[in-house]
Amino acid sequence: MNLSSRLRAQLLLGGALLAMTATPAIAQTAPASAPAPQDQPAPQDNGEGLADIVVTATKVTTNLQKTPISISVLSTEALTDRHVQSLFNLADGTVPSLRIATFEARQSALTIGIRGIVPYDQNQTARDGGVSVYIDGVALGKTQGLNAALFDIERIEVLKGPQGTLFGRNTEGGALSLVTKAPTGEWGGNLTAGLGNYGSRNANININLPEFMGFSFKFDGVYQHQDPTVKNPLSGSTGWNYYDRKGGRAAARWKPFEGFTADFAYDYAKDENTPQYSQLLNYNPNNYLVGTYTNPQTGVLGTSLFVPGTGAATPIACGGTITAAQAAAGRPVCVAPLAPLVKVHTGRQTVADIGVPQQPSVDITHGFSANLKYTAAPWLELRSITAWRGVSTDQWDNSGGANRSTYAPNANFSRYSLSFLRQHQFSQEFQAVGSTGGFQYVLGAYYYTERATEYAATPLSNLWNADGSAYTIRSAIPGPGTITGANSGYQQYDPSCANNLAAVVPQFANSCQFITRASEAFDHNYSIFGNVTYTPEALDWLHVTAGGRWTKDKRRGQLYVVNNRADLNPLSAVVNSVAAPFRFSNSISRFDPMFNIAIDASDDVHLYAKYATGFRAGGANDRSQSFNAFGPESVKSYEVGAKMEFLNRRVRLNLAGFIMDRSNTQFDFDLFDTAATSPTNGAHIEQTQNAGMSKIRGIEADLTIAPVRGLTLNASYAYTYWKAPSAINSITGGLPQQLYIVYTPKNAASGSIDYEVPVAGGDTKVRFHLDAAYASSQYSFQLEPTKTDASFIVNGRIALADIAVASSNKVTLAFWVRNLFDRTYVYRRSAANSSPVLNYNGTTLVSTNYGGILGDYGNLNPPRTWGFELSAKF
Q1: Which of 141, 213, 410, 709 could make an SS bond with 425 (beta carbons 3.0 to 4.6 A apart)?
Q2: Could you tell me which residues come within 8 angstroms of residue 769 by beta carbon, excluding any fewer than 6 positions away?
């Protein structure tokens, strides 16, 4: 054995041992290859093994098995088999490391996390997530609108771990890259229509036109509808888990001469939806004494609680806020009774106990992009990606009813969360991609800017009668003179406030009476980046990559309406001695490096070790009372992996192990007043602070087997361990409390079986698909030790595919089902309303408030849905 062979063997052995002691991962990325079009099709299976999978995670087209990062890929076929119509359909755990949930209960915004980097509340004007979503290379700046209908998707790439070098900020956990199908330049298309339970119906059409004078055009249209799965007893109001989505996309490809390609696209989508229903899961789980609102002495209902059964002559008051001195003196503790109309439900409700005003929230997303590519030389391709995008959200979220606030006679209840957000963004990216000698490179520059505005209110929409046996509906949007107290959740009417706001935001004119907060934020991001891979000629099995990104991030904003405050003026620093609004401004410069060593141990075994960093931008919390600012958080990641194929490429096994340390972790501390008799009932106060180091460790594994022609078996697993810091609640004070990382199960797994059988000769076949996903219990609130249920969901599809009806036309008939066994689990659970609120003066306990105690509430996964589809290719 010569020196080179011994060195290679030693490196192979060391890399294999390293990979065996670390994390599993699904699909992953290798050294950059020569420039290739982003829409280049993947090589087909030659009948002797698994087909290659093409990805663009390194900004160039590479074979997934030779790409030294952890990636999972969902193809068009995989999305169809799982009946994935929007990103929320991936919440069942199709990719174990990818976690998706709705923000709170609403469908109009999604929480997306990878490898334990999961935001709690980025649903604001001046906040970002730790995982970015891209469409054809264009970042989507806000979480609102992420659940819109998917257009004609070629594949979804789930890039795991920090992508700070090539993708930039807010990708510390990874990135979700959606790649659409480009125009083909040939006549053709497909049409799909379907019907299902809960009144569901869907249709989509994709049409390619023949190339004409160098231009190719493609048009996509989509429609998706589902009736509520939980009905609303209030006539004229919409139930819960309803959606109606529609949209269109036009794409053009221009190739005026050899070596130049220009892709243009415009899309518009409208998503009308209602939130998931919040159920009351238990009542008074800590078994406190239940008080009565009837005064034993007078027999009259009131707003104070008394110990039941006490003598008429000596009624004993209880509940509410009890000081330390009162507690020491033995003042009795009691909680409010449950209203007669409110019930505890451990199973999934189909009809709410209480009817509430609710109309669908409306998300509108739209955008234009221009993607230019020019082959300037055999070793150089120049690219430009220009994009304008915008999103508007009119949110009407009344998911809690009486399940998230206590009962009191003649008290208001049911928090109606209203938010009206507008965001516009512009981005420009330049890239130079190529290879020369033993070097392959990606160099680029990037600019991003956005403006986001929001005004919001949290009125209480319902009113109890004296004994809780009935309720009335309050005015949905009150005008001047209709407000009935501060606890309505509306900003008190102030003509001067309305006039001042109208000068900034015209739609505020004469509307100040229903605003509880209003803010705006501006963001500017500049960066330059590079990635270079060197493959020595004498060691063509060794690939060394170094990369880095320098970023300048500047953000500013103002909060100019805050809960009933009339002393803020958004127009200037000081106007007639009126205080300026709360403002913040931050600016950072940072450099994120990346180093990767990849070894081709053989044609079928590829090993790598990677170090990378990333960061999540700082910002300000507009749910605070002062727009409190916070700094960025950052991640250092160490990853090793192995991508292997065996048995003539009939078995594919990818493993990855990672260690991530997240510094200055952004945690949210909130206080939501649920006490029915409180003057601030319905108020939600939240502050964000950088609270130390979070440690995340994990292993990922992905296995694909094709034992015989037509049969494919897939299995994926992710183990994630994390340890979060403790911190003092910046709102209530007190002792340090343990913090939690949300939506990160310790164990998660998924698997699928696909079997295809030819029938009747020709291309017709029967296709069977079955997939399942499991996740262990997890936390869903950063401040609560309460866990959700474990989950196990099975989906399936059977299709008679490619039935020839003409020389070039084919039809497919299919039956699909999601949540085949109709399993029910709580995916978000809070016990915040089950325990008293402790009020501190520094670290000294001053009083304990029992007024908001009710019970745990939670959101359940969607019920079983099924339907039939007819698809035609032409």
Answers
A1: 141
A2: 81, 82, 752, 753, 754, 796, 797, 798, 799
* Tokens matching residue 671: 């206080």
Q: Are 192 and 85 in contact (CB under 8 A)?
A: no
pLDDT score of 576? 44
Gap between the Cα atoms of 497 and 491, Å rounded: 10
Distance from C-alpha of 363 to C-alpha of 373, rounded to nearest angstrom = 32
Within 10 angstroms of residue 748's Cβ, the number of other Cβ atoms is 24
What is the per-residue pLDDT for 575? Answer: 43
Distance of CA 460 to the CA centre of its chain: 27
DSSP 63-123: EGGGB-S-EEEEEHHHHHHTT--SGGGGGGTSSTTEEEEEETTEEEEEEEEETTB--S---
- Measured at the CA of 399, the angle between CA 394 and CA 402, to 5 degrees, comes to 135
Taking Cα atoms as reference points, which of 642, 656, 653, 640 lies closest to residue 699? 656
Q: What is the DSSP letter of 615?
A: E
Distance CA 568, CA 455 (A): 15
Residues (pLDDT < 50) of the chain are 1-46, 477-513, 572-578
In this prediction, residue 566 carries a pLDDT of 54
pLDDT score recorded for residue 2 = 44
Give the chain's largest Cα–Cα span: 102
Secondary structure class of 5 (helix, strand, coil): helix
Whether the CB-CB separation of 837 and 732 falls below 8 Å is answered with: yes
Task: State the Cα–Cα distance between residues 308 and 291, nearest whole angstrom.
Answer: 6
Calpha distance 281→291 (Å, rounded): 21
Residue-level length of the chain:
874
Q: Quick one: pLDDT at residue 805?
A: 87
* Ranges of H-type helices in 218-352: 324-328
What is the predicted pLDDT for the residue at 457? 82
Distances (CA, A) of 34 to 44, 59, 136, 380: 20, 11, 19, 9
Contact 419, 124 (CB under 8 A): no
CA 514 – CA 829 distance, rounded (Å): 30
Query: What does the buried/exposed string (b/e) look like for 92-125 if buried means 16 or more CB atoms within 10 Å of the residue's CB?
Result: bbbbbbbbbbbbbbbbbbbbbbbbbbbbbbbbbb
Strand extents, DSSP E, 535-650: 542-562, 582-600, 605-616, 619-620, 629-630, 633-646
Decide: residue 232, CB within 10 A, 0-12 exposed, 13-18 middle, 19+ buried. Answer: buried
Question: Taking Cα atoms as reference points, which of 399, 531, 396 lies closest to residue 476?
Answer: 396
How many angstroms separate the CA atoms of 81 and 304, rounded? 57
What confidence score (pLDDT) does residue 766 get?
Answer: 95
Q: Of 587, 465, 565, 585, nearest to 515 (Cα)?
A: 565
Residue 843: what residue type?
Answer: T
d(CA 292, CA 356): 26
* pLDDT tens-digit map of 165-179: 999 999 999 999 999
For 68, how many CA atoms within 13 A lie in the half-sphere containing its CB? 30
With b for 16 or more beta-carbon neighbours within 10 A and e for fewer, the 580-618 pattern comes to bbbbbebeeebebebebbbbbbeebbbbbbbebbbbbbb
User: Vertex 26, ends 21 and 28: CA angle to 5°?
Assistant: 90
CA distance 610 to 719: 19
In this structure, what token pair is assigned to residue 650? 């009939």
Token digits for 83?
A: 């009946």
String of b and e for 529-559 (b: at least 16 CB within 10 Å)?
Answer: bbbbbebeeebebbbbbebbbebebbbbbbb
To 10 degrees, the CA torsion angle through 443, 373, 434, 66? 90
Strands 260-273 and 317-318: unpaired
Round to whole Å and give the CA distance between 582 and 569: 10
CB 487 within 8 A of CB 474: no
What is the spatial distance between Cα 622 and Cα 698, in angstroms, rounded to a whole number?
Answer: 34
What is the β-pairing status of strands 810-818 and 747-758?
unpaired
